[in-house]
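Per reviewer request, we include the raw input and output of the structure prediction for the construct analysed in the revised manuscript.
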Amino acid sequence: MLTAIAVAAALLAAPAPSPADPLTTEIGALDAKVFDAYNRCDLPTFSSYFDPKVAFYHDTGGATFERDAMVEGVRKYICGKVKRELIRATFRVYPIKDYGAIEEGEHRFCDLATGRCEGIAKFVMVWAKQDGAWRITSVLSYGHRAATAAEQRDAAGR
């Protein structure tokens, strides 16, 4: 009994987990907005989050160096076909002094016709904050691969 009381006292005395880092919260909210527009094929809204000279590097699709070309690729290859889901456990944000932030993580891609989430990729996005507005200036999308059976089950249970 004394041991249980000691354990309970130690747990109560432990500091509460700190709230989420404000930058991580802010970039996470932006990521949700960007990819909500992406998933709904709202290309004007999606486009508005990117710098006009965004550098987009895709391991299987190549590189583009302007927003309009990148958005055209989304229209052509994504709209009505695929949706993107962030894998929350992989999401990280790092500040860039006097510039903005780096966002990294993994996401899965789900086929709209079947609902199956069979693809996974890693990503890095560089966000610049200029005059109070956030814009994505660089994107790396790489490590595209088939999801394992376990990852597909996890996605189905989301």
